Fold this protein.
Amino acid sequence: MQAEWLFLVKMMIEKIKKIATQNKEHIIEVRRAIHANPELSFEEYETCELVSKFLTDAGIKHEKGIVKTGIVAIIEGNNPSSKTIALRADLDALPIQETTDLSFKSKNEGKMHACGHDVHTSSLLGTALILHELRNEFEGTVKLIFQPGEEIIPGGAKLMIEEGVLQNPAPINIIGQHVYPELEAGKVGFKPGMYMASADELHVKIIGKGGHAALPHKTIDPLLIASHIIISLQQLISRRVSPYSPSVLSFGSIHGGGSTNIIPNEVNLKGTFRAFNEEWREEAHDLMINMAESIAEGMGGKCEFEVRKGYPFLVNDDELTKMSKNAAIEFLGAENVIDLDLRMTAEDFAYYSQVIPACFYRLGTSDFSKAPTGGLHTSNFIVDEKALETGMGLMAYLALVDLKN
Ligand code: NI
């Protein structure tokens, strides 16, 4: 029985790899077309059309126009109502001017696929081709979610969920991938449990009373108040949360606008707060607001503290992620599968992970034999397209293993 099972697994892996190899050139072309025509969050109209046309040509049924530019495709195997799982890709690009000299570089001024969403989308289209071709060889339904607006608040994932993307049919879990330039193409990484942080923007206005810097007693110095607030908030974050719960507070902008001899009327701070615990996240917002307001008031000024809530933290379901990692080892070999650490960056896939069991894994995209290229969100980020074959094949295999279990 065991031998027979292993034989079947091997056969299935070979079939997937064969279809992936057959479609590799086509998917690379699709990826290049998307890369050359990047569109910003919630404006992915042409990308949406391209995805829709691809699915139509392949004979895969889908619905477009969900949250304007989102698409949901359905691939039914035998006994389609037995189980549904979801796979997700994101469509949007970033406001960055591309500086690579690739033949298919961005032709849209100031816009670039610098976070690999072109890879996620084209790779998932490749996965769709594989699953569609193998539809008589599995039981259940695969829902493919192409979502807009990952890069900006409130996040396309949140809006797609509100539009009912996790209903009719309701997937019991969801898998997504993200490019990872720290890892060589052909390799992937997994992390069960907490994986990525929640991220909130902090916009703090400190209002004092400006005047001549030589006469401080006639002013209420908002710079001094801001300094106290920055230091106190750091202490608050380091003392109030358990050291076992990672948390970060960083201010990246302080703006007063006075001069050597001018105390300004107000100072504006911009920062980010990140955490891995929703209860602590809420508590920290209140604590920071209270602390900042009290300090400003105690020093005779005023503080307006706005928290713009971003994505929640991303948790990978233990069981689904371990199963996916084992499947990845079967598909790629143990030498090509690594364990990942926590990351303090954020991702709107987190919204799905708060609703159903989720697995978000990383797809290596670098060619370390060549000169290093830029990282994610940089103008010279370059992907080794070998990653596409890995990504589309592996995701198809993960879907089949998930449906079978
Ligand atoms: Ni991204």
